[in-house]
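Fig. S4 source data, part A: sequence.
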Amino acid sequence: MGTIATTGNKGKGVRSDCFVTLELTDVGGIQLQVESKVAVMYGDSIRTEMLKILDFFGVENARVKIEDSGALSLVIAARLEAAIKKLIPTEKNWLPAMLNENLYTTAKDRNRFSRLYLPGNSPSLMINAGIHKPDGIILDLEDAVAPDKKDEARFLVRNALCGIDFYGAERMVRINQGERGIEDLNYIIPYNVNLILLPKCEKPEQLQAVNDQIKKIQQKYNQTNPVWIMPIIESALGVINAYPIASFSENIVSIAIGLEDYTADLGTRRTAEGLESFFARSCVVNAARAAGIQPIDSVFSDVGDMEGLRENVLRSKALGFDGMGCIHPRQIVVIHETFAPTPDEIEKAKKIVYAFHKAQEQGLGVVALGTKMIDPPVVKRALNTINLALKMNKLNENWREFYEKI
C-alpha cells in the first residue's frame, strides 16, 4: 500500500475545487499546508475542517497540502476523504451536517423535458446549475469522468447530492456500466438521489442487478423513498429489447436513447436529419408508450446552434418524445419552450375536451366539434395536452377546476 495520494483538480481555469496531497508518515503529527487566495479569511476554517476529518479517520501522522481554488467545504471534505481512502481501508464515511438537507422526493410522472448533464468530478459546474431551472440535473459518473478520477468523483457526487441546492430539479446520477456501476450505488442511494440513469442498457438482467442493490442499500439505511430508474438505450441490442427493458419494474419512469453510441454501434454517423436513427427512436417511443412511461430523446451536441436545436426538438416532439438531454444550460429554455404545448395546441385541446364533456353529459355516443367527428384517440391526446398545460400552470383556475371534475 502506498503512502502518498492526490485527489482533486488544479491548474489554469480550475474554479471552486482544490487539489489535496496526502502523505502518511510514521511520526511528526499532522502537518498542514494551505495554499489559497482566500487563506486570510478562510484559512483557519479550512484547517479546522481538515483536522476534524483526519481525526475522524484516525490519521495521526501525515503531511497534508491543499491547493485551493475557491472550493466549498463539501468539496474539500470530499477531496480529503477520497485521498484518505486511497491509503487507509475503512468503511467509515465523513458526512457533514448537510446530510439531512435536500430530502425532497419526485413524482413518477413529473415533467422531464430537460435533463442537464454535469461531469461528476467538476464542482464548479454543479454549484449554480439549479438556477437555470432544468427539470433534472445529472451528476455523471460515467463518460464525463476520466478513468483515474472515477473513485474520487463518487465522494464529490455524494456530497453534492447532500449539500448543493439544485432549486427543486430532480437529482439524477448516471452510474457506470457493470460492477463499477453497482458499486457507485453505495455512494448515492443513501444520499438523496431521485433517479438513476443506467447507461448502455441492453437486457432486463442489468436492471435486476441495479434494483437488487438499491433494495439492499435501502434496507440497510431503513429508507423507503422512491428511487427511479431511467435506462439509456445505446446499442442495436438495446433497441430490440426496448420494451422488456421499459416494462421491467415499477420504478422505471422513463427510457432514453443515446444516439452517439447507437450510431457507432451501427457503424454509421449521426446526422441532423436523423434518418439513421429513425427506427431506433421510434422503437424507444413505442416501447415507452406501451409500458406507460416517458420516452426521452438524446442530446443535441452543437451548443451554439439554437435554431438547429429548436428544429431537433420539433422533430423529437413529432416522434412522440417527452423530453431530451442537454449539455449546456443555454439549451434548457429552447427545449422547454419547444416541448411545451403552444397556445394554439392548448386552445384546440380545450375545445375538444369541452365538446367531449358535453357529449357525455347528453349521453351521446358521438363527439363532434364543428363539422368534424372526434374519435377517442383524439380526445386522449387533447386530455394529455391539458394535463401538461396544467402542470406548467398554463391554464387558469376555472379550467383546472373543470378538468378535475371530469
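Fig. S4 source data, part B ends here. The longest helix spans residues 343-361.
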